[in-house]
Amino acid sequence: MTLRLLRLPVLSALLFLTLPVQAADEDELPKGAKLRLGTDRFAFRIGPAVGLLPPDYKTLVMADGAGIRQFDVATGKPLDKQNSPLFSAGGHMLVSADGKRAMAVRGGGALNVWDVTAKKTIQTLKPPQGFSNALSTGGIIAVMSGDGKRVAQGGVRNGKAEVIVWDVDNAGIITQIPPGHNGMALPTLSHDGKLLATRNPQPIPGPVPGKANEVRTIQVWDVEENKELFQAPYTPTSYRGSTVMFSPDGSLLAASSADGPIDLWDVKTGKPKTTLLGRSGQGLRLAFSADSKTLAAVSTDGSIQKWSIADGKEILTVEGPREVTPYAQGLAFVDKERVIAWGASGSVAVVWDSSGKILSPHSEHTAAIKSIGFADGGKQVVTAGLDGRIVKWNAATGKSVGSIQLRPSRASGYTQSNIQVNISPDATRAVSTGNLVFDLSTGAELFIVPRGSTSGFSNRITPSADLKHAITFATSFDAKKMSVCTVWDLVARKRLIELELPLTTISFQSAAAVSPSGERLVIARYSPREAGGMQTLIVTGWDLKTGKKLGEAEDVNARGNLSVVAASESSAIVTSGGRLRIFDFETGRGGDEIETNGRGELGGAVVFSPDGKRFAFGVADEKFVHGVRVYDWPSGKAIHTFTGHRDMVSALAFSPDGKTLASGSYDTTVLLWDMSAIEK
Asked: Exposure winner among 255, 278, 418, 625, fewest CB in 10 A?
């Protein structure tokens, strides 16, 4: 049985990400846990800001809620005292070429420069009034000189592009350069900070009358004199965000749009030197060797290529890591031959080199755990992630024992890597978030569940807890039209019932579940009130044999994301924004509140033990360490709480004997909890 993958509202999430969080070291299992499947080292909450420290590139720096932290690349262990359980990074991480200064760059304004040795902020650069910036896809809005004493920040003033060049030590502005085009300007500084290159990241098709095409032109400036030296038109084959870099000696300028070609110019003359032809997606990030004689590039698939600049000949092509497909944020030469790259794969920071080897610890999953099942009578745990991977684990040792490759029909348009599925409790079947049903013993697609009407409707599928049924909703975009809910028997492969509901896309959300016997259906949905536009929760029960509506209850206080689980043939637990309430869907009566959205409740669905006497729900403690609370049924009394995850719980499952509770998280790991630890 699985939890629906839910996130907090953005504002609430941002509030708790800034709080100091304490958790046990990964090597120490939390109290009550038997095993951890996978590793959460180098996992992060939001988009990563990752950097490596020169000259040996063995230390990773990443931003969290308390500043910039350092970690050993090989082990993932923190090199400072603060124990942050998960990184709340974002934007870009800049590190000076001498490794002494760093800066986490996010859209919005001030820049904090960090002294790596002293581990503290040494300067805050606040742009003048009227200047603003925002992160740009494929580009970096601020850069540092090699010694970290100058910073160039791209932005907008009164709709026009502008770049500020800062003197870091004095927090003063050296110059403000207006490239002359609308919108954002992305900057690049030379190693000594005396040259600046700017470009427009926005796609403007075709040439602009009276001036060079802004999309395909880089402007090079003398910082001291605030003077444009030359314009360098490059040759993109697409309109990806461009990457620009000066060679260490300042003699060359390289540019790419991460689409193959890499252009080189002679900075002294402003003349084109050559165009290197890379593979598809090549040039996401660029790096020069220390002697400026070799250029390296990393592709969008993680592959690395190198060229000799003197003759333009390719020296090396190495495929990206096979285990993951990382998206590079940085690239550098460690020595004359070896190149190292870093970035992210899903929710995990990754470091790899020009041998194609991953240097950083990583889990089998690189994104949230979506679903969990127990195979072979509980001897094996099977997990499915948002990364599209399905991994098998030995339940006794916690070791990975392989993966399951799904084989969708080629007509489906899917590949194995982009399918997200729910797994049945016994790990025999899987249902995709689309509508494909798979046999997990072979990985083969069995059949497709019909979506229903498509014209004028939004379609989605909700599998039952045991994956013996699937409920599809064809939700009308027209508030005056009825929507259609269809229940399918996935074992017998037949339609059980089709219901018309007053459910439209105006409604916030809906959820559905089938009772343990498979004979009854409960639907929880929001319906807009006529006055005020607020939402009312409506819980309705149906007899699947007769199509008879059993009962209907309302709750005007419910808010937030919905999920529902049928505890019996007449009762259901509905969660709404972390609030748990019991409903009798047979008689239409609302019952007790199990939880009332207290501190730390983060929402999600509910999972019942095989004997139906206990259920579990994902929670967090007062320090926002995440875990699972176990309740008695039918009393609804909380009897035990397990905590130890470093991010929200996203999937739950009991073993067939009920002695183990598995919780999967956005931290990419699964914890196996010993239910015998609960006092009766």
From this structure: 418
Closest CA to 466 of 273, 653, 254, 282: 653
| Helix H or strand E encompassing 446 | strand 445-448
The answer to whether the beta carbons of residues 367 and 347 sit under 8 Å apart is yes
The rounded distance, in Å, linking the Cα atoms of 520 and 547 is: 9
Exposed/middle/buried for residue 659 (C-beta within 10 Å: 0-12, 13-18, 19+): middle
How many CA atoms does the CB half-sphere of 629 hold within 13 Å?
24
Q: What are the extents of the domains in the chain?
A: 369-677
Paired tokens of 636? 């609804």
Distance CA 117, CA 273 (A): 40
**pLDDT of 361-402, one tens digit each?**
988 999 999 999 999 999 999 999 999 999 999 999 999 999
pLDDT at 13 over 60: no
Q: What mean pLDDT is predicted for residues 581-592?
A: 92
How many angstroms separate the Cα of 119 from the Cα of each of 18, 48, 114? 18, 19, 7
Question: What is the pairing mode between strands 339-345 and 327-333?
Answer: antiparallel
Are the CB atoms for 241 and 258 separated by under 8 Å?
Answer: yes
- As a whole number of angstroms, the distance between CA 469 and CA 484 comes to 16
67 Cβ neighbours under 8 A, 6+ residues apart: 114, 119, 120, 121
Phi, psi of 423 (to 5 degrees): -105, 140
Separation CA 162–CA 550 (nearest Å):
65
pLDDT at 82: 65
For 238-279, how does the pLDDT look when each residue is reduced to its tens digit (9 = 90+)? 655 678 999 999 999 999 988 899 999 999 999 999 999 999
Dump pLDDT digits (tens) for 488-535: 999 999 999 998 887 655 455 788 999 999 999 999 988 876 655 568
3-state secondary structure of 13: helix
Give the DSSP H/E element, type plus range, for residue 294: strand 294-298
Nearest alpha carbon to residue 658 among 604, 600, 615: 615
Determine the Cα–Cα distance for residues 312 and 276; give it in Å rounded to an integer: 6
Q: Does residue 168 surpass a pLDDT of 60?
A: yes
Using DSSP, state whether 46 is helix, strand or coil. coil
Q: Is the sign of the CA dihedral 579, 580, 584, 586 positive or negative?
A: positive
Q: Which of 198-202, 234-238, 659-663 has the lowest mean pLDDT?
A: 234-238
For the chain, give the percent of residues with pLDDT over 90.
60
3-state DSSP call for residue 265?
strand
Percent of the chain past pLDDT 70, that is, above it, reads 85
Residue 528 is predicted with a pLDDT of 74
For the record, the structure tokens of 300 come out as 């969008």
Q: Which helix (H) or strand (E) holds 663?
A: strand 660-665
> Which amino acid, one-letter code, is at 14?
L
Q: Report the distance separating Cα 296 and Cα 336, nearest Å.
A: 11
Task: Kindly report the backbone phi and psi dihedral angles of residue 412, in degrees, each rounded to the nearest multiple of 5, phi listed first.
Answer: -70, -25
The rounded distance, in Å, linking the Cα atoms of 520 and 543 is 5
Residues 6+ apart with CB under 8 A from 73: 52, 57, 58, 59, 60, 351, 359, 360
Question: What are the CA-CA distances from residue 281 to residues 47, 215, 324 (Å)?
Answer: 21, 18, 16
Q: Which CATH number fits domain 369-677: 3.40.50.150, 3.40.50.1110, 2.130.10.10, 3.40.50.1370?
A: 2.130.10.10
CB 118 within 8 A of CB 166: no
Query: Angle at CA 530, nearest 5°, toward 513 and 461?
Result: 25
- Tell me the pLDDT band of 212, cut-offs 50, 70 and 90: very low
Output phi, psi for 417, to 5 deg: -75, -15
